[in-house]
Amino acid sequence: MKLESEGQSRAEKSSSSSERRPRVRRNVTVAIAQDICADRYPSGSPLPRENDLCELYGVSRTVIRESLKVLESKGLVRGKPRVGTTVCDRDEWNILDAEVLDWMGPYIKDFDLLGCILEARRTIEPAAAEYAAERASAQEIADLDKAWRQMRDSAGEPESFTDADVMFHTVLLTASHNQVFRRLSSAIHAALQYALHASNIAVENREDAVLVHGELVEALRMRDKAGARECANRMLDLAVRDLAAAEKAIGRSK
């Protein structure tokens, strides 16, 4: 019984350690990433040596190495033998990654990412809406209608509204039945989530957005290609307005 008890105790300690360790690594990864985003470690500059990072962040070399691997996989840093780890240029960062977007957080205005996402949507969504009016299946139109109803019913709840808003635009790109647009949908999902959330929490009245999304669903149902494109452009005009409010709010929070 004693041996069994000791074995169980070791197993529990091992389990506890394995549960804590990823959390520790994530915290350190976030801390280093946010220091990079804040230009504490500017692009092109070397990170401190591993031993110095251990001292700065209060963790072991193993945790530091694992964190640097995560950051390297997302394009923030690059490690070279006998050279060390260097911060990559911002153009190399995977800015469509959900974690990278979170790390950029309050510094996102410095990257003009919200404006870049809007430019991409200006190029893609009107065409996708026009194609969807011609090609969308009955189920895809039903899915868009469902997302629109969720937006309508949660207009006073920014988080739920954003979830429904993101779903709407994801389904719209899929309903275009354009393989490139479909791929772009998955690629920009995290960025779209961030952009729409920033816009939705910055404005108090979402009735205009609800109205035009509903009109787009109706245009698709009527197979009205010109009407669908016009609705998409109106949605993006609203997005310009909301983006200005979002950037103003981000500026205040900084």
Automatic annotation (TrEMBL):
Residues 22-90 form the HTH gntR-type domain. Residues 1-21 have a biased composition (Basic and acidic residues). Keywords: DNA-binding, Transcription, Transcription regulation. GO terms for molecular function: DNA binding; DNA-binding transcription factor activity. Residues 1-24 are annotated as: Disordered. InterPro entries: GntR_C, TF_FadR/GntR_C, Tscrpt_reg_HTH_GntR, WH-like_DNA-bd_sf, WH_DNA-bd_sf. PANTHER family: GNTR FAMILY REGULATORY PROTEIN, TRANSCRIPTIONAL REGULATOR, GNTR FAMILY. The keyword DNA-binding applies. This is Probable transcriptional regulator protein, GntR family. It holds the Pfam family FCD. Transmembrane segments: none annotated. PROSITE patterns: HTH_GNTR. SMART domains: FCD, HTH_GNTR.
